[in-house]
Structures are given as C-alpha cells and as structure tokens.
Amino acid sequence: MKRRNILIVDPFSTGSFYAPILSKQGFDCYSICSSEHITAYYLNSYTGDGFINKKMLSPEDAVSNFNKDSIFSIISGSETGIAVSDKLSKEFGVYGNDPDTSFLRRDKYFMQKKLKEENLSYINTEVISRYNYDISHLPDYNGYVIKPCNSAGTDGVIFCKSKLDLKENIKNILWGERNITGELNDNYLIQEFIFGDEYVVDMISDKGKTYVSSLCKYSKGKYNGFNFVYESLEILDPSDSRFDFIISYSLQCANALGFYFGPIHMELILSNKGPVMIEAGARLHGGIAPLIFEKCYENDLLNTAISLYSGLNLSNKHSKKIKHGKIVFLINENDKAIIINKDELFSQFNKVESFSLGKILYKEGEYLPLTKDLLTCPGIICLINDNLNDLIHDEAIIREIFNNKTARIV
C-alpha cells in the first residue's frame, strides 16, 4: 500500500497552514484532535481547509482507522498536540520525536531540569502545588515569575517584584482549573526573573540534524500598568555572525531536549551572562509569523517544514534574511474601545508602504480589553521593506491609524 496519508494532530493556529499545501502535493490529510478538553481558544482557529475528514478524529480513531503502511507523516499542529503526535509517530513507525521524552518538550519544569543536567544555562526553577507551596527556602531574587507548568503563550504568567508579592499572588492561584491548552493547573513554576532582551529561534530538525529557520527579537514596553507588553517582533539574520553564540546555544538546547524530527520553537533571554532558554515547543512559530518569514528568508520555516514532512531533501543550511521585516502587536490603551469598521481600517493599512498582511482579533463592535499580554492583543500587523528606516517609520504610522480608527465609548 502506498503511503500517502498525513495525520495532523491539533491543526490549530499555524498548524492550519500544513494541510492546504500538502493536499495540493497529492497527500490525503486528516485532522486529529488530541483531547476532548481542547479549549475554544484553539478550536476557534480550526478551519478544516485541506483535510479529507470534516470532523476531527480522536487518536484512538486514527489507530483503528489507518494501516501502519498507509501513513507518510504525522505532524503536531500546535502545543497541545505534541505528546499525542510523538505517540502516533511511534505507533505508525514514521519519523518523530521519542514519546518517552515528550515531557521534556512540553513541561517547562523538566525543560529547565534537563538543561541543568546537561550543564547548559538554565533558569532557577521550583515547582509548587496546592499541597506544597512553601517558598521560605527560595533565595531573594530580583523578581520572580509564576507560570503553569504546561500552558502556552503568556497564559497564567505573573511577574512578582518581591517574595512578599510572590506570596500574595500564590494565594490567588485557582488550583485545578484548566488552562488555555485544556490541561489542569495542578502545578505551577516559580522561576527567577531573568533580565534581558527576549529572542526567538525557530529550527527544523531532520533526524537529529538541526537547521535554524528564523531568528527574531521581541520589543516590550509598559502599558496599562503591565511591565512586559509585547510591542513588536523584529526579524534578524541567523547567518549574521554576531548571533553565532545564540544559535550555538539554541542548537545545544534542542539536542538536550530530544528534538529529533520536526519544527522547534524556542524562546530565550539574552542575560548579562549570555543566552538562557525560557521554553521550547515542537511546533511552528505561532500567529502569522510563518507567512512573513516566507517573504523575508531564503529557506523559510514553513516551506522547510513542508519539505521535511513530504519527504524532500532539505537545503542543509540555515536560513538567510533577504528583507527587513517586523511583526507589530497592536496595543489598546483606551478603556471601552471598539473596532468600528475593519474594512476601513485595512484600507488605511494598505496605503502604508511596508504593510504586507494583518489580522484583527476582535469583531466589529466588540469591546477591546486593555492590552496586557499576547492574549489581549487586539491585532497583529506584518511589515516588510528593503529599507529598515522606512519600516520603522511605517510602524509608527500603523499604530496611529489603529488608534484613530477605533472608537472610545464614553
């Protein structure tokens, strides 16, 4: 039997990009839902485009419905699908990551523990639960971070200035609630807050040989009383020798955490002691990042991943930047603001030279929350330009348009 079926587990967010492309290459793509607890945050991004099945299958359905020799590839479409993808890859005998070490690529505590064991830079991390949340033994750091062990994005992440602040925030934890991924918050991490610029490295591993597909740097600012609101993501060049030390460290982390086959999305802080990994996932970069990467890089992330899962040979080299690019995170600072008219908003965006594409994440007439993190970001805009100064200038214009085309209800 010819292998022509591809199973995509939790094809949400950027995981939805795979099937439309792979189906045009002659593959039959089937969507798998990893759990009945997947939240609306993910389910609402499911389009069904490119899939044979209209209703997503369960992992059990996949095992019973497909012969082992009919499966060509298995893909994790999002953070929630990592463990199930690993298990199904082993079940069907296709390339994938080891299911016995899935926890290293999903649980943020074990990620840091493994880095420490491998003598790589790591973040001091403790685990607390509803039954054991004593923090008296913790050193006095210059700030602390509380986060769920296995959530995603900035869901449930709290910055604390002091140990007293930390104690107060621990009291307010709602133990046992499901987080944005649908998993139970039975444990939280307490981490030392690391000061420095935040970078993102996206990689593709082909049977243990890993290539860098993108390198980006976040800019953050203080808005609405929150200190670390994302402003933009600047696209950098992985082939630039100035970043060799970041690339080298990232590749070592990927190897330590058992990334063997598929995409790797890694977030790091460049501290005064060098780069240190925050977390990593076996998935594509989220949002609309892969679409702007297509236009800014040779050997871009999405097309390299498509080549890997369709059995084509990779280029055996890191990506190279060919255009300046930036993802702009729109920020709402107006209480009771709404989007009046999306069409009018985008007609103004399209007049900006660097504008490439964008997405408003709220409906017309819907109240916009004050922006405090990525989950309350009202929209994302991609800018591309051959001239860096023009791109920076156009970012300011985009923000001015957004602020002028929303309404403040008094």
Automatic annotation (TrEMBL):
Recorded superkingdom: Bacteria
A Pfam family annotated for this UniProt entry: ATP-grasp_4
InterPro entries per the UniProt record, alphabetical: ATP-dep_AA_Ligase, ATP-grasp
Record flagged with keyword Chaperone: no
Transmembrane segments: none
Domain (ATP-grasp) ranges: 112-310
Protein name according to UniProt: Phosphoribosylglycinamide synthetase
Organism lineage string: Bacteria, Pseudomonadati, Pseudomonadota, Gammaproteobacteria, Enterobacterales
